[in-house]
Amino acid sequence: MRRLRALLSGVATAALATAGLAAFAAQQASGASADATALSNRWYAAAPYLMPHDNNPPDAGAIMDASGLKAFQLAFVLAPNGGGCSPTWDGTSPVSSDTAVASVISAIRAKGGDVSVSIGGYGGTKLGQTCSDAAATAAAYQQVITKYQLKAIDFDLEEPEYENTAAIAREIGAAKILQQNNPGLYVSVTTAGTADGTGWFGKQMLNEAKAQGFTPNNFSIMPFDGGFNGAAAQTSALTNFNSILRSTFGWDEATAYAHEGFSGMNGRSDTGEYFTQADFQTVLDFATSHHMDRFTFWSLNRDRQCTPPDNNGKTSGTCSSVAQSDWDFAKYSVKFAGVTPPTTTPPTTPPPTGSCTAAAWSSSAVYTGGNTVSYGGHTWKAKWWTQNETPGSTGEWGVWQDLGPC
Q1: Residue 46 has what pLDDT?
Q2: What pTM did the predictor assign?
Q3: 265, containing H or E segment
Q4: Residues 6+ apart with CB under 8 A from 255
């Protein structure tokens, strides 16, 4: 899941801390605490993911002003790239000496917001893989909680870690210890979604949680990158996941939904699925009507329109590949938190240059070398035999040649 975290990470920008560094420095000079009044759990449940170091980090304050958002899910805390049991940002920046992310948190709190921190994610080495046991893993995460005075934390357990039984046992054990040692801590556990709810490894993770007697605020699935086609496929997966939670923990339907969460991907997914604002509204309606505990998405870094809006049929870590205004998707999180976001003018998709004469590309059609199609306002020519490879995607060999705008 979320290949863009590893494949599309950019260089951290100076904008990361322009406003936040001043706030952080002022706090350090005055000795003031970076703590903030805790938000309601509903806000932590609605917090979208934000990478503060990579993928052209947006200004959190600007998002708050434009959308009404108050909570952010900062990603990702990992083990050091060289190994060890100490927390770092993205495997490279030690939490112990961090000032950049701390400045972002200070700026958010200065505007009345707060953050949760997500650990794990797709790719990289996780602390559950490198620490010796659950207690050592928990001690590493406690450093993060203490440093940033966190009221919420997210365990993002997916590839490749969730295929490691021992690592998952340490992560679940650590989550239980943190929950016990930090009263009131909001804990979410996020894992891969499938049409059936979640796959074999996700079910094993749930069984581990049951065996350890651990119940977080929610177990969330990510119904994307698995052949999903819009909101209907996602709500079906959420319904199926509810059945898995019921059978695993012995909960009734309502209790299972009260411990269930959704973590989507806005716009074009890694595998070429598309999730529009209308899809988000449908899933939001499902989540609220079933009294689900969490509604979030990957990511705020992508909650901007590409140029061109469809990004030539490619997935980006810094924009959504669908027509939108900045922070459109963040407003669905705001709605989940029970707040009415500001209104904006709906975006429009500019028409493609000229008129496409080639037939529209079809995922089910078979094409051979020399065949031409239209897609995304461009004409494309197949270099050789292909089927179900989107024009503009690199694929393994790059079968489509872009002949330019129609």
Answers
A1: 98
A2: 0.80
A3: strand 260-265
A4: none
Nearest CA-CA partner of 402 in 351, 358, 350, 349 = 358
Q: Is the pLDDT of residue 233 over 50?
A: yes
In a 13 Å sphere around the CA of 343, the CA atoms on its Cβ side amount to 1
DSSP E strands, 326-398: 366-367, 372-375, 378-382, 386-387
Cβ neighbours around 21 below 10 Å, total: 18
3-state secondary structure at position 400: strand
Measure Cα distances from 373 to 31, 126, 283, 404 in Å: 63, 43, 33, 12
Residue 33 scores a pLDDT above 50: no
237 vs 109, 166, 198, 244, CA distance in Å?
A: 35, 27, 8, 10
**107 compared with 387, residue with greater pLDDT:** 107
Catalytic option among 158, 161, 171, 208: 158
Quote the crossing angle between the two packed helices 230-249 and 277-289, to the nearest 10°.
30
pLDDT in tens, 358-370: 888 787 788 888 8
Gap between the Cα atoms of 375 and 385, Å rounded:
17
In angstroms, the Cα distances linking 1 to 4, 42, 96, 286, 371 are 9, 25, 28, 23, 33
158 is catalytic: yes
Residue with tokens 């651990």: 214
Q: How far apart are CA 326 and CA 311, in angstroms?
A: 15
Q: Which residues of 366-392 are buried (b: 16+ CB within 10 A; e: fewer)?
A: ebeeebbbbbbbbbbbbbeebeebbbb
Q: Report residue 39: phi and psi, to 5°.
A: -80, 170
Distances (CA, A) of 212 to 59, 156, 222: 40, 18, 24
Burial degree of 261 (CB within 10 A; 0-12, 13-18, 19+): buried
- Amino acid at site 357: T
Distance of CA 338 to the CA centre of its chain: 21
pLDDT digits (tens, 9 = 90+) for 141-194: 999 999 999 999 999 999 899 999 999 999 999 999 999 999 999 999 999 999
Nearest to 327 by CA among 301, 288, 294, 295: 301
Residue 2 has a pLDDT of 53
Asked if residue 186 lies in contact with residue 41, where contact means CB atoms within 8 angstroms, the answer is yes
Most confident by average pLDDT, 22-31, 223-232, 372-381: 223-232
Strand, coil or helix: 373:
strand
